[in-house]
Write a structure and sequence with these properties.
The model has no long low-confidence stretch (mean pLDDT 95). The strands form 2 sheets. Strands 2, 4, 5, 6, 9, 10 and 11 form a 7-stranded mixed beta sheet that branches. This protein is mainly beta and 124 residues long. Helices cover 0% and strands 47% of the residues.
Length: 124
Amino acid sequence: QVQLQESGPGLLKPSQTLSLTCTVSGGSTISDIYYWNWIRQPPGKGLEWMGGMTSGGSIFYDPSLKSRTSISRDTSKNQFTLHLRSVTPEDTAVYYCAATKELVVQTRDPLDYWGQGTQVTVSS
């Protein structure tokens, strides 16, 4: 069983950097054979895949966010982290981390594992 929990600030001002951490537990590690992804859902919109990491540590980003996004991992803590630079109000969304069978996620597959999500609001 894979359990994921997002943590990080819920409110940022424009131009700040969003940093979110996903902690993996439940007997699984981030070296297990999944794609370890960050996905967000803006209000009133669908899921938006931001980027993900293979179990071996290779990282992939959505091209539209690549210039502002960094994903990293700490295997000793069983965590992976998202950094999103220069946030604007358009980055307001619920942010999820997920362990998935596919790299690019646009829908929720019942065979995947998702965190509960964390609301991030960008406002001056």
